[in-house]
């Protein structure tokens, strides 16, 4: 015979399951809503142009499953130029992964363009006018049951590096995250990429996440070549992800 105590326990478990399911549904809806926005830059007109430190560029939005052939070529070439060194012998395998990620329907892009009559060595667009000089690839995803923006790539040509543009772009990503009720911005950094590590931790105040290999297990961390960093926007996200 079921006791009153067992009945209460069973009822509590059912309520807990219902609460967890409702929360998961709410998070999924939040992700779906954010991903359905056609142009996230439209909410931030002042961020659609960057004119500082000798750099004059403008930004455009893009989706992974709607990339032009010239955009795909630019992304592949810039990734190879910037990341083949940090990945070393792992690059051939990683390059294939990144090519698949590039055209994923969940991939969202910020393209950085420069008005110029000259084409760069990387950008092989044939229109001879505006050229790509960089991009941000980000997605709306769930990490530890929380909705976050995950930055897959922030890649710039050397001609626009060291001009404050990278910081400007990350601030824009953080605004997009907050606007869409995401709880944090997260990203992965190769351990050997000390410049990127310094950029995110010292200039932007990102911290190593609790789900980063080194934080999960020191031994596992010693065997991996990357760490995960985050910037959280509220106390729950801080307690969970930091």
Number of strands: 8
Spatial gap, N to C terminus: 46 Å
The unreliable regions are none
Look at the helices and sheets and give the structural class.
Answer: alpha+beta
Radius of gyration: 21 Å
Put simply, the count of helices is: 8
Give the helix level as a range of percent: 40-55%
Q: Which strands sit side by side, in order, in the main sheet?
A: 1-2-3-4-5-6-8-7
- Shape from CA axes? globular
Overall residue-averaged pLDDT value: 92
Strand proportion, as a percent range, falls in 25-35%
Helices and strands, in order, run as HEEHHEEEHEHEHHEH
Q: Identify the quaternary structure here.
A: single chain
Describe the largest sheet.
8 strands, mixed
Summarize the SSE layout with pairings:
Elements (H helix, E strand, L loop, with lengths): L3 H33 L12 E4 L2 E9 L5 H19 L3 H12 L5 E8 L14 E14 L2 E11 L8 H15 L4 E7 L3 H10 L3 E2 L4 H4 L1 H6 L2 E7 L2 H7 L1
Parallel strand pairs: 5-6
Antiparallel strand pairs: 1-2, 2-3, 3-4, 4-5, 6-8, 7-8
What does this structure look like?
The protein contains eight helices and eight strands; from the N terminus they run H-E-E-H-H-E-E-E-H-E-H-E-H-H-E-H. The chain has helices at residues 4-36, 69-87, 91-102, 165-179, 194-203, 213-216, 218-223, 235-241; strands at 49-52, 55-63, 108-115, 130-143, 146-156, 184-190, 207-208, 226-232. An eight-stranded mixed sheet has the order 1-2-3-4-5-6-8-7, with helices on both faces. Helix 2 (69-87) runs antiparallel to helix 3. 29% of the residues are buried.
